[in-house]
Amino acid sequence: MDAEIMQWVDQAGPYVAAAVGAYGTAVLTRAEGTAADGTVALGRRILQTLWRRQNSSGRTELEQAVADAADRPEDADATAGLRQQLERALREDVELRGELATLLRAAMPGVRTGDHSPSVSHSEIGGDNIQIGQAGGAVRIGRT
């Protein structure tokens, strides 16, 4: 379970950092705006989910960690403090683990392996020279 928790923390980290960078401490109470990009919006949802599940002292600690990370975005210790808040909450709260896993699964591109080769979904490949070896099933090239 420890490895799984650390994987979730690692996956959530960039989203959380983007949300803190965009909104600072207001990220914990800000309503979702249509202008926020997907990364910032997911980070906001992760932090707000975490905040809602905390008791008053946990909320205070989370608010302080967010404030520290917002005030010192280049400081690895400030970022680590926020990661530690998320990690501790995930260790203590099974339901939070499920909520975070659901949020991350819905937002991250899916890569699944098939019988003979990988299958990538919800991704975009750019450029003007794309080569596909054997292809079958749902292959679509170009804009839809």
Topology at a glance:
Blueprint: H1 2-23, H2 38-52, H3 56-71, H4 76-92, H5 94-107, E1 110-113, E2 118-121
Antiparallel strand pairs: 1-2
Helix pairs in contact: 1-2, 1-3, 1-4, 1-5, 2-5, 3-4
Task: List key phrases describing it.
144 residues, mainly alpha
What's the overall geometry? globular
**H/E element sequence:** HHHHHEE
Biggest sheet details? 2 strands, antiparallel
The number of distinct β-strands equals 2
Compose a concise summary of this entry.
This protein has 144 residues and is mostly helical. The chain has helices at residues 2-23, 38-52, 56-71, 76-92, 94-107, and strands at 110-113, 118-121. Helix content is 58%, strand content 6%.
Structure characterization notes:
The protein has 144 residues and is mainly α. It has five helices and two strands. It has helices spanning 2-23, 38-52, 56-71, 76-92, 94-107, and strands spanning 110-113, 118-121. Strands 1-2 form a two-stranded antiparallel sheet. α1 (2-23) packs across α3, α1 crosses α5 and α2 (38-52) runs antiparallel to α5 (94-107). It is globular. The termini are far apart.
